[in-house]
Amino acid sequence: MPDYPSEARDDTRPEVLLVAKLAIGAKGDVVRVDFENESWRNRLFERAARSALLRWRFPEGSGERSYRTEVSFKSPTAGPAAAAPQATAPTRPALLPGEQASLKPLSRVMPDFPPEGREAVTLQARLAINPKGEVTRVDFDNASLRTRPFERAARTALLQWRFPEGSGDRLFRTEVAFKPE
Hints:
Order of helices and strands: EEHEEEEHE
Helix content: 10-25%
CATH superfamily of the largest domain: TonB
Oligomer: single chain
């Protein structure tokens, strides 16, 4: 369970509730934590929750899986009813809407390192795939000004990926790592 962030002691909200989406690797490790409706106002709580959730372990499985859970922070100054911060365990394993555990790309195009890039960057990408197997949209988790040149290069490459045809739209998550040579 995450601790209430000490830097947030001036936050006047009696409770902060975060909804987290966890990506679980085949070995049961949490490999990524995303929050619904991320907000600068919640960044201290998201950092504390992410740190705790990345230590969670799940049973081994085949391929990456996704789980949703809620993390509740109760202010230590909210009165006697305020208990220690709690993170609730996932109630049932589930893929996020539209995700398919067995989806694998048929062809990949690797991005070029952007000329303005000066450092190693790893991006978490979400690809929307149409029934023809074409990538129609690419979104990045935790996008920032610092990563924008890398996002442009990754988006150009990821839009060229192809997947097996399927029924309906699908989602695929992948990691794109840039390392300077």
